[in-house]
Amino acid sequence: MEKEFIPKLLELAEKYRAAEELCVIPEEGAVKVKCSKGAFRFFYDFNKELPQDEWINTPLFHWQAQQKYIQLRGLIDRRMVEPALAMRIHHMVQHDEFTRTLKDIMVFEANLFEFVTRARIDHVFADFSGEVYTNCIMSASNNVKASMELGFLPDGSEPVLLHEVVARTGIASDLPVDIQTVQYPIYVFKGEKTEKYNEIDFELYGMNNTQADCIRFILWALTDETRIGQLRDDYAHMEKVYAAAVKASSTLSNAAVEE
Predict the structure, then answer these.
(1) pLDDT digits (tens, 9 = 90+) for 70-96
(2) What single DSSP character describes residue 62?
(3) Whole-prediction pTM value?
């Protein structure tokens, strides 16, 4: 975590009165937050065995704080396109602090699929190619399907992130038409050199965008501590989704998500 993370989290927690008496402790793969509402371990390393101690283990689904995904869900909720029939997902990135294993990517995208479509995954088919790539198809209880291409790219590669919701009346996407690679809010062209700027949060300007999303997500969770229980239930479900994917890959057959 950047050195600005803790001061910014404390500053915005006070500004928005999310919680009182905050104490923030960084941990490998997690952020521990103790406050008037309890002691929580917000973890983002989904492949790590978590200690069972006085800290309440809570998943840090930072993508749920990204405006582009909130807006994508809003298009479905407002019935700009309806009904959602399927979701097409490409998530090919480099290894980084928040993306260490294929499980991290699958939890990200499976949870995002449910978040955007308000569906509940109940069956999974997956085919893992080692520890760097997988194709999978997920089916939800309302019969919405998701096609996912997930994996890691070599260092220096441009990330490929695409989320499209296919509906009967149209397609909603988080990228412009016919674009796959990540787009940036600001480009500065200097002859043969192009500089890109990706900061989009004016209160957290200059921070890594994912870390800014983490701050926003933690504040959202602390504002109403009843959300913690739902997040824990959602992560228990994600563990079962991943277990079904592993089983499907080993048996080359569709696997049910055991509830």
Answers:
(1) 999 999 999 999 999 999 999 999 999
(2) G
(3) 0.91
